[in-house]
Fold this protein.
Amino acid sequence: MAILFPATAEFIGALYAPCRFEGSVNDLEVEGTVPTELEGTFIQVAPDPAYPPMLANDIFFNGDGAVTAFRFSGGHVDFQRRYVETDRLKAHRAARRSLHGIYRNPFTDDPAVAGASATTANTNVIAFGDHLLALKEDSLPVALDPVTLETIGNWDFAGQIGDGPFTAHPKRDPEDGSLLAFGYEARGIASRDIVYYEFDAIGCKRRETWVEAPYAGMVHDFAVTPNFVIFPVLPATADLERIMAGGRHFEWQAELDFQFGIMRRGGDGSDIRWLKAPNCFQAHVLNAFETGDLIHLDMPSASGNVFPFFPEANGSSPLAHELHYELTRWTFDLANPGEPPLRTTLYDAPCEFPRCDERVVGRPYRHAIMLGCNMRLFASERMGPPPWQFFNQLVRLDLSTGLAESWCGGDAECFQEPTFVPRGPSAAEGDGFILALLNHLESATTELVILDTRDIAQGPVATVRLPLRLRMSLHGSWVATPPFPKP
């Protein structure tokens, strides 16, 4: 009996055809010279389904987490890739088929996995303490051995947080190394509850705060400053009745306001203030910071729904070219709580997957890197329409001047999320290197490119060639050897 992946957009082509590779390759080919300052591991994770979907089709976000590590040492680069052995993946391997149905809908799963953790651990991977944590926002983290990538198991911080959801985008406080995190739908599917956590640098919980959002919307990322937490609530909402009937976990609400929740880090949540903004799409936070009574929050924005797999109730979603994209700054005046946030455009072009220097998270900052898209540089006549989540530029933005420089990987290429690496422990903010995977759509190959932030327009100082194609990933991080102290 043939068992095949469906020939749909989520499972074909150089970006989305499953890779399903586990293994290692030492001493990858390198064109150019790997900077001597790069000593450590670039690690990222991709949704990469190990088995065809149980139902007729599936969405990209529902693939099994596959972690890739690029280990840099003395100018050499070694490659390692391994699936996160979640409870879900172990059940699929035992059955030799998928047992899960619609994304984040346990009512569509095979009864054989009822009540078991359904995490795919496919969205982000970070280093914390002695482990790597593979993250998916609907479940607990999954701990991995940082050397072998072997799965240790679900990670509840030594029993300190129960069995609830945990964000894929925790933040590190650059002052003391503490880990700041949250979970949404924290009291069950489609609940409005959000829980906020703070853990010290060795993993001891020092704060747990509960609040309620105005509606049960997606909260993919969040922001922190020294004194405040900001929850951006996306108007893609969950409805328990719909989910129990076998429907989508999220549907877009085009008439619903975007919501920002702002609360004090040291409070009990009773002071949380919910501020409305016009309906828009915002998923990832670049950074946030305080100046006096003002809080500034920087996020890529789109004028409507970017996720066609979470359409409106009638099944409609806008086409990508119908939306306006930009990098937006939202400014909240704490001295005037009744005022709506002030919106400012920082970069007026398509952009996503933003990153700042992690040594200035929550502080005033100057430099940002992100992915951009310029369709005039894409060979659409030869290639046809680009795939979903297409970005053909690396962009470095100077927020103090508004000046942006970019590098395009080619006329048939697509970048994955960039990662910033400081040049050294005492390097100025934003001075360092950009690492990003580059998929070649025609040859179905993947390379890792390394650019110097001092002149990204010149292109890579080194290109690391992979002997295989990697599926589109989501997020990752740099783990220095030894870890860099704060500047």
About this structure: The mean pLDDT is 96.
